[in-house]
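Example 4.3 (complexes with small molecules)
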Amino acid sequence: MPALVLLGAQWGDEGKGKATDLLGGSVDYVVRYQGGNNAGHTVVVGDQKYALHLLPSGILSPGCTPVIGNGVVVDPSVLLSELSGLNERGVDTSKLLISGNAHVITPYNVTVDKVTERFLGKRKIGTTGRGIGPTYADKINRVGIRVQDLYDESILTQKVEAALDVKNQMLTKLYNRRAIAVEQVVEELLGYAGKLRPYVADTVLVLNQALEDDKVVLFEGGQGTLLDIDHGTYPFVTSSNPTAGGACTGAGVGPTKISRVIGILKAYTTRVGAGPFPTELFDADGEALRRIGGERGVTTGRDRRCGWFDAVIARYATRVNGLTDFFLTKLDVLTGWEQIPVCVAYEIDGRRVEELPYSQTDFHHAKPVYENLPGWSEDITGAKSFSDLPKNARNYVKALEEMSGAPISAIGVGPGRDETIEINSFL
Ligand code: GDP
Ligand code: IMO
Ligand code: MG
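Answer. The structure with guanosine-5'-diphosphate bound is encoded below.
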């Protein structure tokens, strides 16, 4: 059985956690392939709500093996506290596997993230402050610390020394901060080594063997397509590749193994942090979407910026990810609007543009061209099949599907596992 990728089609927080959890019961492995604890994935099981940051959402399905791939950046203290939090709630986490090649978010990476943002002032990215960007920067600069380094004190010390060499100059001379002591960092990191040991594995081998044995592997993206370092709204992006190709490099599985790429798509749009957002609303509608949709960040508690659905972005996500399907989420949140505007194109300096402009300047000038679709007032949270939806809700879904370039195979009508309408099976 081939592999599936599930990823965010917008700016994150589309409902990836719920979608992954839903499939978790039917797959053998759920793999995070990029990002770190900048992610906040909410999963609601019965009356229990879980907020996962680093752990794959498959951790809540007993038959499933959760895997943290080599492309992820791991903050050991966050990982251990997330594990113990779940254990206290009776969740068995013993099957977790962590790649020895995953990079470690060190305390100095978190410090650098925070001071850099402060230094940028008005030009800041609005990062989650979790050390994500600086850890990936160290990886690319070849001064990163990997999980396997925690098991060789001498190598670890040399690597921390190399990493801190330049950073301490920067912290003391440029940012007016105190230098960070190598020994203190090494001691802290070594303190995690024993606790992480049982989980560390050659995950590339495990996953490829699993695929050869016909097991089902689901790759769960963090963030979203427009936050991708290559394909997103750079520089207002995260520092990894949430797009489909990231699953291959971030887990060591070849593209020939992936047969399905599911884009999680919110029925409207949200964004956290700075950066362009053509359909953003600053009025009562935006406020209502935030309130009804509960649009507050799971990781940083920041209010999410809210706006209408943007079909230009959805089409772009279909293209750069090779999406085979969409999972449309939060349709229930739109209940009650008489008319629902949907952005079908942009107007840029007097021109109508159908596709996402590659130029940052153009995108900053993009004004949404709206088409109004008729709304519905009936409660749809109990809908179990597509035909249970009111006519206007069905038409809204069909219109989005047509504009977005891939079939909508499932619809979320509430946060719970069972509040989902399945149209085509994903497995
Ligand atoms: P993720 O980061 O993509 O996993 O998404 P988040 O968990 O950050 O945000 C999505 C929020 O929407 C969570 O609070 C989910 O419980 C909730 N959610 C997911 N799907 C639906 C849905 O179909 N309807 C409603 N009302 N809430 C949903
Ligand atoms: P999930 O997985 C929404 C945003 C931050 C900031 C930018 C860079 O829950 O969808 P970073 O700390 O990654 O360097 O911040 O990316 N961001 C997210 N926005 N959902 C997320 O994750 C995000 N992870 C990062 O707000 O704008
Ligand atoms: Mg989230």
